[in-house]
Amino acid sequence: MTSTFFTPDLPAQAPIRVALVDDQQLVRAGFRMVIDSQPDLQVTVEAGDGLQALRLLADHPVDVVLMDVRMPHLDGLSATAQLTAAAAEGQHVPRVIVLTTFDLDEYVLEAIRSGASGFLLKDAPPEEMLAAIRTVHSGDAVIAPSSTRRLLEHLVVALPAEQLVDTGAQEQISSLTEREREVLVLMARGRSNTEIASDLFVAEATVKTHVGRILAKLGARDRVQAVVTAYETGLVRPGA
Q: Which positions bear 4-aspartylphosphate (predicted)?
């Protein structure tokens, strides 16, 4: 694996601190090689299971965690839930990217409900992993729009009907204005703020305001959670 990936021209600042949580040492080594090749990214924590990750992250704060799902001692879903629960106590909480494959659909939704900011396919190209880390850290967009939407649609189709009933979010969806619903639907289609602004013929700053209000009304931590709510409540249907 070589260090030939595109690096954006970023101003000098502290690198984004990344934690790798995966029980396969070779997987962690490969990820570390790619991440550490970037001047704006740095792996500062490695853990082989959820329990070890929680212990290390208690003393070594990071910005983004790449979290595997299936691990011994404590799985990635439980570890994610415990990490994000600390936000209620005012503690620093990193953004979590769940490492997944298409055969773990039901776990992905649970991870998002637990507070994960998005997901990354384990066989994604290195460039996509780097972009996902930066994008999740910025909190500005749904990560890897095409693969995220594809995974969400696959997820909703795979879930039994009883898991798609109203989860209490229907009332929150009803509180959205017509324009906010339009923006949420476009978010679910993987559109960026710039693209949404172009689609709706409004300023990008206006779109950002709408997104902020949508997140507040839905009680969503970020755009990915808002999009999941849109799918769960039927506002957006797979293939729409």
A: 68
Domain annotation covers residue 158:
no
Residue 160 resides in a domain: no
50 part of a folded domain: yes
Mark whether 52 and 121 lie in a shared domain.
yes
pLDDT digits (tens, 9 = 90+) for 188-232: 887 888 889 999 999 999 999 999 999 999 988 778 778 878 877
Q: State residue 231 phi and psi, 5-degree precision.
A: -70, -45
Sign of the CA dihedral with 190 first, then 192, 198, and 200 last: positive
C-alpha to C-alpha distance for 36 and 222, rounded to whole angstroms: 26
b vs e for 140-162, b when ≥16 Cβ sit within 10 Å of the residue's Cβ? ebbbbbebbbebbbebbeeeeee
Does residue 154 lie within any of the structural domains?
no
